Amino acid sequence: MTTVRQRRAGKGTEAAEDQPSEEKNVKPDGKILSDHTGGRLWNILSISVGGIVALSLGLLTSVYVATLHENDLWFSNIKEVEREISFRTECGLYYSYYKQMIQAASIQQGLHGLVYDNKTESVRTINILERMNVYQEVLLSILYRILPIQQYLEPVYFYIYTLFGLQAVYVIALYVTSWLLSGTWLSGLLAACWYITNRTDTTRVEFTIPLRENWALPFFAVQIAAITYLLRTHLQPVQERLTLTAVFIATFLFSLTWQFNQFMMLIQALALFILDCFDMLPTAKVTWLYIIQISALLLVCVLQFFNSMILGSLLISFNASVLIARTIQKNLKKGGLLNRLGKLILHVLLVLCLTLLINKFIKKSLNLESDEHIFKFLKAKFGFGATRDFDANLYLCEEAFGLLPLNTFSRLSDTLLFYVYVFVLFLLTVAAVIVAFQNLSSFYFFCLISGSNQVQFMEKMEEYTITLKPDAAYNLIHTVLFGCLALSTMRMKYLWTSHMCVFASFGLCSTEVWKLILKCIHLYTSQRTHVIKYSILIITLLYISYKFWPGIMDELSELREFYDPDTVELMNWIKSSTPNTAVFAGSMQLLAGVKLCTGRTLTNHPHYEDKNLRERTKQIYQIYAKRSPEDVYRILRSFGTDYVILEDSICYERRHSRGCRLRDLLDIANGHIMDGLGENEPDLKPSLYPRFCEEIKKNLPPYTVHFTRVFQNKTFHVYKLAKHK
Fold first, then answer.
1. Residue 451 to residues 115, 246, 456, 718: CA-CA distances in angstroms?
2. Long-range contacts of 537-542 (CB under 8 A, 24+ apart)
3. Read out DSSP for 549-594?
4. How far is CA 441 from CA 17, 340, 437, in A?
5. 459 CB-side CA count, 13 A
6. Which stretches does UniProt call biased (Basic residues) (predicted)?
């Protein structure tokens, strides 16, 4: 097991707080007043200062996480094999393709090796560019080869520094989004500070560097910033076109770098759909965003050689259904309250039915089953019946796919983030309900009122809509939906907590929010609003600095060292004692490291989005089940296995409780009763054979005839398979 240990001594202002008015302040003779010129200069100065602060915070965050990574592992001092082992589980698999491209004789040969890969899955040739989102590794390896940096920078550092550099993009995007929403760059400063001080819950880049989400989330944050700007009113046509282009590029890059892109964008599309139904966003802009999502995903589909999981995605079906339903129901936003509610319910049902029909038709036509394990997992997770499906239970038993732990909220509360977030969320949710009701009923009431009363009615309406502009409305629904996702699945919390920093800082620094609060208690004046807004902002920043700065300094001064001698010994033995063509079987997590460190062929790996691979993995994992040696040997040889690696940490697992250990999941799937004290389902039967991973170590004849132990240490046991005729 990979661990870290204590290191031994060794060698070696403000962009306009309120947005500039669209009207010019002009004298009767047509000359612009000097105070307007002064205001413009102040805005330019404020934007410049805000931009410099954003860049500085982004770079500081990048240096901060890079330093933490170095201090935690002593990355600059450890051996190459130790560096590669530190890329655990699927991280190692992704990095192996970067290494493969770097070591290829030419770029063309490297690409050919990825398109016709026969080392990732034994006895199969697969297209890595189709199956996995590794275009970023391809691009990075090409840049490393063509740029004159080989003499100054090792390939691994070029890779990790790129990921740490993307953290700068991430923080700047969060900063800009908060700035756009509130009108003050101080809001962005607070958002960035919250992101850094809540690092445990906002990112895990320093210890899972190659993970797909670390590539994708910075582009997702850029996309949200661009959408926030797009939804502002009074944009010029050129500004709107440029912003739509930025949204498309960010959406495309996000989709290209993460296999779960379609599910995240489906939630985003759902947010747009809800807001459009309640007339809280401009319909034309929402339509463009639907089209951009479909276009970006289809372009990625082409680049991934028509990946079936993309073609059968719910996002494409949903967006197409919304556009079709909108064409059918042209008068959706006209009529009285009850009339509109009836149309709205019919519209939702129509979209839902069309989505299911289109998705079913696509999957049936193309025989797509790539993502069926996700729906099995969701069905079991939300209580729609118990399941014995091995793949679904594998997800259900992982902590990362469980509910968000309650201690997350106590950590977020220590920085005041959660308290502010809940306060702003409550306030704007109430405002959103009022605005939605007014939008549904205003047309009807407006038609009943005539003459000068219509003007008074519209003025009254402004009091409700001023605190929930389209950009704020979008970010409100965005944070609610992604909050629900994070609460249900802990691994997805990083999509929520980073946006939580943006949303809370916006609410704390928004003139409109404080104006609404003060009006409710009859204390509103423009001057008082600004005094309260900036006072609370400064107090919050001072509190965060005072409480967390010493902790950050202590964290940066704590020095540790990578320490995993058993895995290092295993990898060195494989490289020195087995042929280059040898095929290895074992756990998904370990085999990713075997491929990266040794280049040997694998039987299975952690990239789970393929039905054949899932079935293959379940078969390989019979080495931890109660099966006969003949059965296990036959299964392993059917995949061309030469060596099998058994791990004591899996065979005698104690990390999970009974019923969630890997051996328990295999027993249940095989219809066998589980080990240990506790209940079993009545139809489970005792196995006729002992557990393979335990019994093989006794060197009994039924086992030695098929398996010969060739390596052993405290953690791993490697057996060579006999080659019978």
1. 70, 44, 10, 88
2. 537/186, 537/187, 537/190, 537/508, 537/509, 540/190, 540/416, 540/420, 540/508, 541/189, 541/190, 541/193
3. HHHHHHHHH--EEEE-HHHHHHHHHHHHHS-TT-EEES-HHHHHHH
4. 33, 8, 6
5. 5
6. 1-10
Angle at 223 between CA 53 and CA 344, to 5 degrees: 130
The closest alpha carbon to 649, from 716, 718, 711, 713, belongs to 716
Q: How buried is 282 (Cβ within 10 angstroms: 0-12 exposed, 13-18 middle, 19+ buried)?
A: middle
Exposed / middle / buried, residue 365 (Cβ in 10 Å: 0-12, 13-18, 19+): exposed
Residues constituting the chain: 725
- Does the pTM exceed 0.85? yes
Residue pair 509/184 in contact by the 8 Å Cβ criterion: yes
Strand, coil or helix: what is 126? strand
Cα dihedral: 646, 649, 654, 660 (round 10): -50
How confident is the model over 120-130, as pLDDT tens digits?
999 999 999 99
Per DSSP, the three-state class of 66 is: helix
Map residue 376 onto helix, strand or coil: helix
Helix (H) or strand (E) segment spanning residue 708: strand 707-712
- 27 contacts: CB under 8 Å, gap ≥ 6: 33
Nearest to 177, CA basis, from 228, 220, 218, 217:
228
Burial level of 434, CB count in 10 A (0-12/13-18/19+)? middle
What residues of the chain score a pLDDT lower than 50?
A: 1, 9-33, 445-447, 464-466
Count of CB atoms situated within 10 Å of the CB of 333: 17
Helices 135-146 and 237-257 pack at an angle, to 10 degrees, of 100
Cβ–Cβ < 8 Å for 485, 495: yes
Kindly state the tokens that stand for 52.
């410099």
Longest CA–CA span in the chain (Å) reads: 106
Amino acid, single-letter form, for residue 508: L
| Residues contacting residue 103 through CB under 8 Å, at least 6 positions apart | none
Pairing state of beta strands 583-585 and 601-602? parallel
Closest CA to 257 of 399, 145, 162: 162
Q: At CA 273, angle to CA 244 and CA 213, rounded to 5?
A: 65
List % helix, strand, coil for the chain (3-state, nearest 5): 65, 5, 30
> What span, in angstroms and rounded, lies between the C-alpha atoms of 242 and 321?
27
Fill in the amino acid letter for 108: Q
AA identity, residue 109: Q
Residue 472: C-alpha distances to residues 18, 405, 506, 507, 534 (Å) = 15, 28, 9, 10, 20
Cβ contacts of 599 within 8 Å, gap of 6 or more: 119, 580
The answer to whether 539 and 210 have CB atoms below 8 angstroms apart is: no
Q: What is the pLDDT of residue 618?
A: 94
Residue with tokens 């060698």: 11
Q: Are strands 583-585 and 643-647 parallel, antiparallel or unpaired?
A: parallel
486: left (phi > 0), else alpha (psi -120 to 50), else beta?
Answer: alpha
Q: How far apart are CA 629 and CA 634, in angstroms?
A: 8
The CB density around residue 255, as the number of other CB atoms within 10 Å, is: 29
